Amino acid sequence: MGFSDGKPLKIAVASGKGGTGKTTISVSLALSLGRAQFIDCDVEEPNAHLFLNPNLKEEEVVEIPVPRINFDKCTYCGECAKVCAYNAIAVLPNKVLIFDELCHGCGACTMFCPEKAMYEVGHPTGVIQHGDAGEIDFWHGILNIGEPMAVPIIRKLKKRVRDDLPVVLDAAPGTSCPVVETVRKTDFSILVTEPTPFGFHDFKLGVEVLRKIGIPFGAIINRADKGTDEVRKYCEKQGIPVLMEIPFDRRVAEGYSRGKPLVDVLPEYRDRFRDMYKRIAEMVLAKAA
Length: 289
Ligand code: SF4
Ligand code: SF4
Known about the structure:
Helix 1 packs across helix 11 and helix 5 packs parallel to helix 6. The chain has 289 residues and is α/β, with parallel strands linked by helices. It has two domains: 217 residues, 3-Layer(aba) Sandwich (Rossmann fold); 61 residues, Alpha-Beta Plaits, CATH 3.30.70. Helix content is 34%, strand content 28%. One iron/sulfur cluster binds next to strand 3 and helix 4.
């Protein structure tokens, strides 16, 4: 499914907080588009594979560069520890300790070592995996337990984004760096929310971030009949398009617990998701014109 200028869209699905139904919605969007690519960028807790059951057949390790020391050259001056913003280095009178699990791979210590005593080696932080799930070209990333750096894995995943298919990227919940990295360079973002006070609060944070990055976006209000009108009114006032409202349905909640996405439980939603994609395409085209 493309759109009128022939280029399929890259759409990120985000939510200011967890538990809004973001993944069942992003999976449902991808399943409604025919042949599509799905990339699960929620690398700390990827769970789209539970809905899509991909046949995973390819894996690549993701590494970040961490420093090592040539002790023949080191003078224990302490500059590397001073420059490290993440406290990943401690310099003792005759020892330098490097804590790989704290290192962000920024390269500053190696750059600033006055003796050129540092070099870098690869430190594995996780993997990306690839497979087919019916018509879906499926990718996801998995961050190793205890590793702090989700962004390099998301960057690696985003190198696999295709131009010939509609792409749905499932972002982590929240508004931190991994979310920013996921939505960057997409055509449009969907913010999934629910009409509760917490949902509304976190939705506004999501709106702020997307506005700062400059990505056009719209909202999906999930469990739309349970809660208040605040999100709806806010969207109206702020000129944020409400792309879809999904009322609470026990069958959807039950389906979720059995790994069944929304459109498998309620197939009539496939048309709604396809219509929403077309509407987004029109908005993207209008903005580009
Ligand atoms: S900056 Fe270089 S020379 Fe100084 S303690 Fe660190 S590794 Fe050794
Ligand atoms: S690469 Fe950056 S984060 Fe890692 S130890 Fe060096 S300065 Fe610290």
